[in-house]
Design brief:
The protein has 202 residues and is mainly α. The chain has a domain of 68 residues: Pleckstrin-homology domain (PH domain)/Phosphotyrosine-binding domain (PTB) (PH-domain like), CATH 2.30.29.30. Helix content is 63%, strand content 8%. The chain has a three-stranded antiparallel beta sheet, covered by helices on one side. The N and C termini lie far apart (49 Å). The C terminus is likely disordered. InterPro entries: PH-like_dom_sf (IPR011993), PH_domain (IPR001849). This is PH domain-containing protein.
Amino acid sequence: MMRGVRRGCVRLKGAILGIDNEEDGNFTITTDSKTFHFQARNSAEREVWVRALEDTILRHAVFPHEHQVQPIVFLRKHMPHQLFKAHFEEEEDCSYEASMKKFDNRIAQADILLQMLIEQSQTLDSQIETVEDEALKVRLGKISHNYNLLVGAVKLAIVLLQILKKKVKAFEIVRRGVVPACKRNLRKGKEMKVWLLWHAAK
């Protein structure tokens, strides 16, 4: 047990998981308008906990129709085996390089799933054109419209992830002290023109 431990129950139905970027082992569970803080021994153990909790939350989610499959079951059925394995297998290397590689892989997986959504949308549109019942055709058209909104939201999410990746890389350069090192070199008289521009923009 960790220092400051408290015993109790946390409702996982509709819960939202959060990760503290400043502390390797910390994560949160927000449910019923309350946030609970947890601490693992390290980032690798935290990753195991977070993935297990995500799986539990998804498996026990309430769906409006009984025939609707659970998300994990859907992914296991429709996602290529290598992608599913790479998505859920444990990874102990939590360095910046490994994390960025993992992040790139997730974006690539999202692109593949997006292509699947687009293909299904095109199939749905082609099937709607063959429907003769006008009332049914209108209802299916509304479904197709909402489906296309979903596809657009996924596209936007992928674009935002790409922007986030660039910002993270820029932040990592600053965090590792590359900018201060350049500043010290410039003060020694190297590339004085760039040094003046740097101070002018400061």
